[in-house]
Write a structure and sequence with these properties.
Elements lengths: L2 H4 L3 E6 L5 E2 L2 E2 L1 H16 L3 E6 L2 H5 L12 H24 L5 E6 L1 H5 L1 H16 L3 E6 L13 H11 L4 E6 L19 E2 L2 H4 L16 H14 L4 E5 L3 H5 L6 E3 L8 H9 L4 E5 L1 H10 L8 E6 L6 E5 L5 E7 L26 E8 L14
Parallel strand pairs: 1-4, 1-7, 4-6, 5-6, 7-9, 8-10, 11-13
Antiparallel strand pairs: 2-3, 9-10, 11-12, 13-14, 14-15
Helix pairs in contact: 2-4, 7-9, 7-11
The structure holds adenosine-5'-diphosphate and the ligand N[C@@H](CCC(=O)OP(=O)(O)O)C(=O)O.
Length: 377
Amino acid sequence: MRDEITAATRVVVKVGSSSLTTNGRADLDRIAALVDALADWRASGREVVLVSSGAIAAGISPLAMKRRPRNLADQQAAAAVGQGILIQHYAQHFATRDLTVGQVLLTVGDITGQQSYRNALRTLERLLHFGVVPIVNENDTVATDEIRFGDNDRLAALTAHLVHADALVLLSDTDAVYTAHPSDPEARRISEVRDAVADLAGIDTSRGGTSVGTGGMQTKIDAARMATSAGIPALVTSTQLAREALAGEDVGTFFHRTGKRRPARLMWLAHASKARGVLTLDQGAVRALQQRGASLLAAGITAVSGHFQAHDPVELRDPQGRVIGRGLVAYDSDRLPELIGRSTGDLDPQLRRSIVHRDVMVLRPPEARVAPEPAER
Ligand SMILES: Nc1ncnc2c1ncn2[C@@H]1O[C@H](COP(=O)(O)OP(=O)(O)O)[C@@H](O)[C@H]1O
Ligand SMILES: N[C@@H](CCC(=O)OP(=O)(O)O)C(=O)O
């Protein structure tokens, strides 16, 4: 038995496009089966927030498209049609179990900006208070590529953090994370993950998922890591096993929590924000940040690139160019170059504050550091 799941009173359940649609249409039988499993969970006095993909996939056939569109405008048109159809079916099926649903469409900005974060939280809390099942999706019809999550796995992890969920359950068409693509005869189920780096070392997630899904298994692993690093256990399994998963049975891949709840702004900074620039640090500054938990001072910066404004997210790199973390920078990119490398004592007192304060900095664990991406061609 998985005690963290059976003891949970509030779960976020994310379901992928491939579990809700067949041939570019909403699949009523599959939606009904999922709704039944969730309604039973609700009937035991517990709460669920459903993060449902499938808007684009459910709009394919009604718009006489042949496959999932690749360009943004067609995806948005499909999502506008498909989202309505999905919600209609959810509303009908949940109503047969005396449950009301509420649609909540979110953009990255809604869930990461301080004010809008509170708005989103207030709405979800209110819906749960009224006994409603909130159904969340990305607001695909207005989100541009620039500001889009694109996959709902990470949106679900941020939602789980937002609503202080006790567990995150990621449902798709595969019953677990395997050591290789499930069609590979050598592939073995991974039943538990305590340390995502060590336990998942060498597994192959490179083969894409379904023709309607977006991220494949990798974005589910990323989402599970986001949740567990913020104190929320996560389970990856198939939609058919939703009932067993919620009952705490040994199905799927269970990710144990690895960290504690962290402030929302740091969740956003670590996982959802786009860096606007890069600060390269000397070795002494890297040590000060990693070993002493220091703030970043001007003296430790050797190079600045990108265009950013004060309070934008920037990447922090070591002298070898590996990303060691991220932070919110205190100065604009126009101003910063004149300060770099200068010791605090040499600076005008007004400019003596740290360039990236410790409280708005997230560092990567040493094994997760990555080499710089190749320059754009
Ligand atoms: N190592 C792996 N273990 C399990 N599934 C994998 C693995 N590598 C790739 N996959 C694929 O990931 C897919 C699930 O991702 P995706 O299609 O994005 O699902 P969804 O649309 O439900 O979010 C599975 O269909 C499976 O083929
Ligand atoms: N917001 C998109 C979600 C796309 C997506 O993440 O799909 P999936 O990989 O199936 O979870 C939609 O509803 O179509």
